[in-house]
């Protein structure tokens, strides 16, 4: 079970929802399920419209940071993450600050999502 808190000027107040562990839904799917107005277009990691800032809030050790190739390409191109941050994510499980909501799979960590 993970708490996912969405924060945005587009929301009247922060919204926290529960994501069931093992569901392996994308962050975008969780947002849509709870009527959170995240931007999206392609839903396939190509357009970059679903970029969000993600902060891990829980003190649990990360399962491992899995960035898809599309996510790495789009976020690098947009200037949201560096090659060093990608390397740190892949070798040290250090979460990068920006993710694509349509590619990020919600796991057991409590996270803050800003958009
Ligand atoms: S909706 Fe296009 S990259 Fe996520």
The CATH level-2 architecture is identified as Roll
Enumerate the distinct ligands.
Answer: FE2/S2 (inorganic) cluster
How many domains make up the coordinates?
Answer: 1
Q: Which CATH C-level class is it?
A: Alpha Beta
**Helix count, per DSSP?**
3
The CATH topology, please?
Answer: Ubiquitin-like (UB roll)
Fraction of residues in β-strands:
15-25%
Q: State the shape.
A: globular
| Average predicted confidence as pLDDT | 90
Strand runs, count: 5
Order of strands, main sheet, comes to 2-1-5-3-4
Major β-sheet profile: 5 strands, mixed
* Helix-strand string: EEHEHHEE
Q: What value does the Rg take, in angstroms?
A: 13 Å
**How far from one another are the termini?**
22 Å
Under CATH, the homologous superfamily reads: Beta-grasp domain
Helix content: 10-25%
Low-confidence stretches: none
How does the helix and strand content classify structurally? alpha+beta
